[in-house]
Amino acid sequence: MVNHTNHDDFALDIHDLTVAYNSSPALWDVDLQVPEGVLMAVVGPNGAGKSTLIKAALDLIPRATGDIRFYGQPYARARHLVGYVPQRSSVDWDFPTSVLDVVMMGLYGKLGWFRRPGKRERELAMAALEQVSLSDLAHRQISQLSGGQQQRTFLARALVQDAQLYFMDEPFAAVDAVTERAIVTLLHELRARGKTVIVVHHDLQTVPEYFDWVALLNVQLIASGPTEVVYTEDNLMKTYGGRISTLASSRDRMEV
């Protein structure tokens, strides 16, 4: 295993990451450094390994090779620094629990599983719900929420952790325009507070508008860095294998 001397310079430092499913590589030899305080989109076609990258970083799936550090530490020691918003489609929304209870689950890492949340935890959870404009629905069952409200509940659960780095796996998928604007505002607020946010993102048109850093991924890392440098037509062609029809409209919006 290679030890970098400058792990601490990055919020996330991935070296030589390979992940395989049934001996077929989902990620191949990925090296990625993400500096502190950036708002980064992870962009690539379906099957490119975007969600796999997050899950491997969080030790949710095994990796064939790879050294991953958060602020210079392995995930096991940096868990308290990291928040995670999974894909909404991966959650059982019929589970009988309230919005407030879901948000308070974000505090279990600090509380431990056997200590009941108290008044302070409820106040923190309500403050997070206020940030995503859901405090009036705190006691509603999650099964009664719209898709956009469910996504904002998950964002509040991540916010209440008060992490330094946030992973968000497709937070804009199938949400209404109001929720999308609310999420964008929240992402920019997090960045303004010095947080690092890594977002799996599909809408190529909004990348230059929403994100200041980007990683282009298609099993291998194609390029990563500041959006204005990396998000070029040439790099997008390499990432999407020349399927330029998906890129034409975004090209009109880009300043490259």
Name the features.
256 residues; alpha/beta; 6-stranded mixed β-sheet
Structure description:
The chain has 256 residues and is α/β, with parallel strands linked by helices. Helix content is 34%, strand content 24%. It has helices at 50-57, 75-78, 99-104, 108-111, 119-131, 147-159, 177-192, 207-210, 227-230, 233-240, 248-253; strands at 10-21, 24-35, 39-43, 65-70, 82-85, 165-169, 196-200, 213-218, 220-226. The strands form 2 sheets. The protein has a 6-stranded mixed β-sheet with strand order 5-6-7-3-8-9, with helices on both faces. Strand 1 and strand 2 (24-35) form a beta hairpin. Helix 5 packs across helix 6 (147-159) and helix 6 runs parallel beside helix 7 (177-192). Residues 1-5 and 246-256 have low confidence and may be disordered.
Low-confidence stretches at least 5 residues in length (pLDDT < 50)?
A: 1-5, 246-256
* Number of continuous helical runs: 11
Q: What strand order characterises the main sheet?
A: 5-6-7-3-8-9
Largest sheet: 6 strands, mixed
Tell me the β content.
15-25%
Global geometry: globular
Q: Structural class from helices and strands?
A: alpha/beta
Radius of gyration: 18 Å
**Oligomerization status of the protein chains:** single chain
Share of helix, binned? 25-40%
What is the overall pLDDT average?
A: 87
- The tally of strands reads 9
Helix and strand element order? EEEHEHEHHHHEHEHEEHHH
Cα-to-Cα separation, first versus last residue = 38 Å
